[in-house]
User: Fold this.
Amino acid sequence: MKHVVILGAGFAGLELATRLSESLAGEVRTTLIDGNDSFTFGFSKLDVLFKGEPKADVQLPYADVSKEGLEFRQERVTSIDPEARRVTTDAGSYDADILVVALGAAYDLAATPGFEEGGVEYYSLPGAERMRDVLADFDSGRILIGILGHPFKCPPAPFEGALLLHDHFVERGLRDAVEIRVAGPMAAPVPITKEVSQSFLDALGERGIEYIPNQHIAELDTQENEARVADGESIPYDLFVGIPVHRAPQVVLDSGLADGGWVPVERTNLATRFPEVYAVGDITALPMAKAGVFAEAAARVVADDIAARLHGEELEQPYEGIGNCYLEFGGGAVAKVEANFFGGPEPTARLVGPSRELAADKVEFASTRRARWFG
Ligand SMILES: Cc1cc2nc3c(=O)[nH]c(=O)nc-3n(C[C@H](O)[C@H](O)[C@H](O)COP(=O)(O)OP(=O)(O)OC[C@H]3O[C@@H](n4cnc5c(N)ncnc54)[C@H](O)[C@@H]3O)c2cc1C
Assistant:
């Protein structure tokens, strides 16, 4: 029986493991490895930050994952040899017939000097908890959300953060005392589409929030409370909220799989240049948004490609990079960005909503994944 080893149990790894168990139980055995003991949806970090959700309530324990032909191991991957398909962890080693790298994107806070000691972030669970406490004591001044690199996970998330910050201060009766600005390296909030970018700019503008484009923030001057921009300018703040520089995890950079920081793959089936080695999710170099919906859709294609090859068939439906990303708009309403990266000659995206119905859809999105992966 072929042994499939999946590194990383995020959106991609969980969906791949589930689909393999559904379609190939009895034909492959699968080992799913993650260094954590639980999975958290990216958007749950906003619930911890703004809705006071306790951390424990948004963590979904891997101990609940129970699927035919699947074994979960809580171990940290310490080296990957893609030629030999050999993986070493802090607890042992694995030889895979088919290896899938789904280790996501890591954050490099140190890439922005001053950020760790002088800023807050909500892209990690501990970061969201800390920012929630800092926010509770913040009642006036200038908040700067700084996007510190590109690409970053979930392109709408910095703007969601800004819209929800607006609500937070409105609810506390302090909105007039707080300035909120977003600065980033992109010329527009969502560079692939003028229309969606304009909708974001309109939503921000209606709430008195400015987007400052083309800003490459290099470091924070924590004495002066100023973000130093690469062109020599600086942006003052009283509270700096950073979207950290994203990188492939070091173990992937050390493995020879990456080129230019991320792992190149065939767009159609997510195969790397190494035989029987795939990479899927945020870790890939595909020119598209890094988001859970795309990671899980790509994982389904990897499962189908594995099944097709085992059965001597061709993959029927190649990966198209199509998905809907939900976006909190404040006031309990949610919008979605419908994106299609590879279905046509150019990527396309459009904004639907915001509405209360889409807020209900987002709840449904999370609960179906919870039931499918952990049920
Ligand atoms: C604030 C925020 C909001 C978001 N909102 C949305 C949204 O509304 N919709 C959406 O689609 N996406 C959203 N995202 C993005 C989404 O969370 C990611 O794009 C998605 O998780 C990527 O899936 P992945 O499987 O590639 O990687 P991940 O889900 O990051 O999984 C990678 C896994 O690898 C593990 N790992 C890493 N290194 C090692 C190692 N050395 N050893 C062992 N294990 C390791 C990690 O523990 C992790 O579990 C949001 C993200 C954030 C931060």
Remarks:
- The chain has ten helices and 22 strands.
